[in-house]
Design goal:
single chain; 245 residues; alpha/beta; 9 helices
Length: 245
């Protein structure tokens, strides 16, 4: 059976990568998880785990050889459940890739192969609708976890995605997640006519922890435990609705 494919989507800075990483950590307790970055400019996903992806591994090679995609994933770690999380991102020493060199066919081949290898596949999507990895994964996904940061710019971005969402028939796939803010815009969700599925806790120290290679799910502070609990609730909801089998 092919893996369930989930895409985490939203405006840049909304907390997409944080959610993708922590969902992978929760799922890895019982599943083998592939975690794919859509960032074609530099390798940032591995920094959440304190990892270095060397040249010869990673996203670029997988796109060139979709039928051997499994060979280019990088293990997130050996402790706890991280041995069940595998990363696909550009190498740390990569200097940039022109996105127009990535074909839709290559991305489809990569995703098809990865879905045959892992139990669950998570794509850390891009706000840029021309990003081929993000675009194909949105179309393929069983569920799109749309992260909202409560701000005017985030609301404008989501409104601008209206035609894109309709053209790809994504409406029924969207699960809206609202990021807490120190002083939230209380009318954010009603103004956009969205129904939030979950509220993601605001973690002030998240950037520092992630820069140090520690996913929030492995920090013992009260706030991080609350974030991990929310990630567990999201996963349970996906199981209950048979999005993840």
């Amino acid at each position: 059976m092919d893996a369930s494919l989930l895409t985490v989507w939203g405006r840049s800075g909304a907390g997409k990568s944080t959610l993708a990483v922590n969902l992978a950590c929760v799922l890895a307790k019982t599943r083998c998880v592939g975690l794919i970055s859509s960032n074609l400019q530099y390798g940032h996903l591995q920094s959440f785990f304190g990892q270095t992806i060397r040249e010869g591994k990673g996203l670029l090679n997988a796109l060139e050889n979709p039928a051997q995609t499994k060979e280019y994933f990088w293990k997130a770690g050996t402790l706890n459940t991280l041995s069940n999380v595998f990363l696909l991102s550009v190498p740390n020493d990569y200097t940039g890739l022109q996105a127009d060199t990535v074909s839709q066919e290559a991305v489809e081949g990569l995703l098809d192969h990865a879905r045959s290898v892992f139990d669950v596949l998570i794509v850390d999507g891009s706000e840029d609708v021309t990003n081929p990895i993000s675009g194909v994964s949105l179309a393929y996904s069983k569920q799109i976890l749309t992260v909202h940061r409560q701000s005017v710019s985030s609301g404008l971005w989501y409104r601008s995605m209206g035609d894109f969402i309709r053209q790809l028939h994504l409406e029924d796939k969207l699960l809206h997640l609202i990021q807490e803010a120190p002083s939230g815009i209380h009318e954010y969700a009603p103004a956009l006519r969205i129904q939030p599925g979950f509220t993601l806790p605001y973690i002030e120290e998240a950037q520092a922890l992630e820069d140090g290679g520690t996913p929030l799910a492995f920090d013992t502070s009260k706030r991080c435990r609350r974030y991990a609990k929310t990630a567990e609730q999201i996963v349970q909801d996906l199981w209950n609705r048979e999005v993840i089998l």
